[in-house]
Write a structure and sequence with these properties.
Pyrv_Knase-like_insert_dom_sf; 13 strands; MOSC domain-containing protein; 29% strand; seven-stranded mixed β-barrel; M1 Pyruvate Kinase, Domain 3; three-stranded antiparallel β-sheet; Tri_helical_YiiM-like; 7 helices; Benzoxazolinone_Detox_Enz
Length: 235
């Protein structure tokens, strides 16, 4: 493990949200989500399960220590506006339900297991976001979740190693990079584009993976089939 202790980015906005009723893709009621997050001024406490005051709608698939803080790169917003037009949801941070919006780091520059210090918190990169159908509703695009997968502009989640506080304007300092050979773009490629490459899957399985990812990788290796994404991406 190499210790680099260098600034690689900066937090632009810190956001949090509360659970609200959320329509299903067919327009019917019955679901709940906290994807609509709003900027927070000043320091925010970060606990093992996420930002103080932030909520998740479905704790079976959201939240938990391996999805404590969701982070999305501001660099992606101009690309989405160029592809989708000037949608109102893309005019400010938070379009993707992120807790942290930043500049300087993307899926191309971060690696699996990276440890960063932001404010007084120490975070570890735990997993990529696997986008779901709620984005289709939020953007008014039937295939928005699939678009994130195909482009690799998914965002990622941090695990909290040391609780503390962070705020807009804080530097993102890289403390450790145990797996420089595993940039997130490589993980995206294995996950979605070369999904049955046994060599890559076996190497991915050697990393510290959340339980759901361990199950996914092992199932692909054992059965030689890719899991069904339909329920996740279409609802």
């Amino acid at each position: 493990m190499s210790s680099t202790a260098r600034v690689i980015g900066q937090i632009h906005t810190v956001l949090r949200g509360t659970v609200q009723p959320y329509p299903r893709p067919d327009g019917s009621a019955g679901d709940r989500s906290a994807i609509d997050k709003h900027p927070v001024a000043g320091p925010v406490a970060v606990r093992a399960l996420g930002l103080e005051g932030d909520e998740q709608g479905n704790l079976r698939v959201h939240g938990g220590p391996d999805k404590a803080v969701h982070h999305y790169a501001q660099e992606h917003y101009p690309l989405w506006r160029a592809e989708l037009g000037e949608l109102p949801v893309l005019q400010q941070p938070g379009a993707f339900g992120e807790n942290l919006a930043s500049t300087g780091v993307t899926e191309a520059s971060l690696c699996w297991g990276d440890q960063v210090r932001i404010g007084s918190t120490l975070l570890e990169l735990a997993q990529l976001r696997q986008p779901c159908w709620k984005l289709n509703v939020r953007f008014g695009q039937r295939d928005m979740a699939l678009r994130l997968q195909r482009t690799g502009r998914t965002g990622w989640y941090w695990r909290v190693l040391q609780e503390g506080q962070l705020q807009a304007g804080d530097a993102i300092e890289l403390v450790a990079r145990p797996h420089p050979e595993w940039p997130l773009t490589r993980v995206v490629d294995v996950l979605y584009h070369h999904a049955l490459d046994r060599t890559q899957l076996q190497q991915l399985a050697q990393l510290r993976l959340p339980a759901s990812w361990e199950k996914l990788v092992q199932a692909r290796l054992e059965h030689g089939q890719v899991e069904d994404w339909a329920r996740r991406v279409h609802g």
